[in-house]
Write a structure and sequence with these properties.
α2 links the parallel β2 and β3. Helices cover 48% and strands 13% of the residues. The chain has 180 residues and is an alpha/beta fold. It has one domain: 3-Layer(aba) Sandwich (Rossmann fold).
Amino acid sequence: MATDSSTALITGGTSGIGRATANKLAQLGIHVIVVGRDSKRGEKTVMEIRAAGGKADFISSDLRDASSAREVARRAVEIGNGNMDILINNAGIYPFGPTHETTEEMFDRVYSLNVKVPYFLVAELAPLMAKRGKGAIVNLSTVAADYGAPRDESLWLKQGRHQSADQSVGSRIWPERCSR
């Protein structure tokens, strides 16, 4: 994939792994669009990337449902001049605790951000990538999805779902490039 005209959308791109990923991709010449809830962190991330010679934009969004995911995808494609080459689903929440202490409200919040939002971002952006004949979708996960850990019972809400979805979507859109 040529980096001189590539665009990447990174959810949770204003801190931690998402921010580090945005910085690295920008260093490679990729236009990064970071998404986050905190406007100050978002603007700071963009300013730092631009100061280092990279191209970056920020979308402020409290990703929480299909509608917010679709709006972020629409805005990102607009910022990317009709293109989106890379989607990195990094945003997530991870409340620790046993299943029997998880409230329905918390379950809904975790499921919405960790499963529903990435699903609808992929639904919006994968067809555009397929039409252009190039693209990459990365759904961040953790080893806890494979092995489990005490106090981390809610992680399955995100991690196991992503691992299954990655293979399903990839094999449908790019069957010749998706390995199992």
